[in-house]
Automatic annotation (TrEMBL):
GO terms for molecular function: enoyl-CoA hydratase activity. The keyword Lyase applies. Pfam families: ECH_1. The gene is ECHDC2. Belongs to the enoyl-CoA hydratase/isomerase family. Keywords: Lyase. GO terms for cellular component: mitochondrion. This is Enoyl CoA hydratase domain containing 2. The keyword Disulfide bond does not apply. It comes from the Eukaryota. It comes from Oncorhynchus tshawytscha.
Length: 303
């Protein structure tokens, strides 16, 4: 989790989208309120949880509310398998201080081996700001407000991104005498192309959601709604499209693409064959073939 550790030194503030640089925000207090839907347990740093009813479980923290800055919400019913990482440092606008980064790293680590989770949506509960991480399952960043500097670098760490048309995104570090230092100089060129990435970083330019989708920075852009969560709703819609697919196959496809883009095409093909071989013996692969022959929807279990 080197990526997240580096943010303990470089801080950014996020707003229900992603965030601007905020050097003074290190260690500023923040809080998050979490209600987990469903009853599956996630390792919880020793904190107990209690169920209110059959479909709604609240995660109770031993820490004070002000000390909880990142937490998890599991969806249930038809959305079972989708998890939401919730960020809420109200006073510090999700600034990436040490507590925030530590809690994010711990949560991501616990999700990493959770086979019940098929898609992860990262969203902010702070009006106007966002933040994210590295996981084996698909991740979707919902940018409903500002994603500036480190905030955009965090969104770039996700596989997919949605944004409100009114959102503002940019790697603005050069306007502060810095350069992107948490992956932005490497991930942005891979997302939008080398020449355009240089232009955006050299100028520190901000772009809105519609421009971002035109250049390939985000996958989908939509008009903001009165609740200020249009990008989140679009991210959830995208997660629901991924959810029915075979989870092991989706993870292996992600691994093949992520690892393959770092090497030459011959090595990339070898990585693809390796990932393909890991899918062949799965029950999901057998179920997919059986469902095709029987002309019925597949019922994947992640086995």
């Amino acid at each position: 989790m080197t990526f997240l550790r580096r943010f303990a030194i470089r801080h950014c503030s996020l707003s229900r989208g992603l965030g601007a640089l905020s050097p003074a925000s290190l260690g500023a207090p923040g809080s998050v309120t979490l209600h987990r839907l469903g009853v599956e347990k996630l390792p919880s740093r020793g904190r107990p949880f209690t169920g209110h009813n059959d479909t709604h479980t609240s995660w109770l923290h031993t820490e004070t509310p002000e000390s909880v800055e990142v937490d998890l919400k599991r969806l249930d019913g038809e959305d079972t398998g989708i998890a939401e990482v919730l960020m809420c440092r109200q006073k510090a606008k999700n600034a990436l201080g040490r507590v925030f980064v530590s809690q994010m790293r711990e949560l991501v680590s616990s999700l990493h081996h959770d086979t019940a989770v098929r898609v992860v949506v990262f969203r902010s509960l702070v009006q106007g700001v966002f933040c994210a991480a590295l996981l084996p399952m698909p991740t979707v960043a919902a940018v409903d407000g500002f994603a500036l500097g480190g905030g955009l670098e965090l969104a770039l760490a996700c596989d997919l991104r949605t944004a409100a048309n009114s959102a503002q995104m940019g790697l603005i570090e050069t306007t502060r005498g810095l350069l992107p230092g948490a992956g932005g100089s490497q991930r942005l060129p891979r997302a939008v192309g080398f020449a355009l990435a240089k232009e955006l970083i050299f100028t520190g330019r901000r772009v809105d959601g519609q421009r971002a989708v035109d250049m390939g920075l985000v996958n989908r852009a939509t008009e903001q709604n009165s609740d200020g969560d249009a990008a989140y709703r679009e991210a959830l819609s995208l997660a629901r499209e991924i959810l029915p697919q075979a989870p092991i196959a989706v993870r292996m496809a992600k691994e093949a693409m992520n690892r393959g883009m770092e090497v030459d095409i011959t090595s990339g093909m070898a990585i693809e064959r390796m990932c393909y071989a890991r899918v062949i013996p799965t029950r999901d692969r057998q179920e997919g073939m059986a469902a095709f022959i029987e002309k019925r929807p597949p019922r994947y279990t992640g086995e």
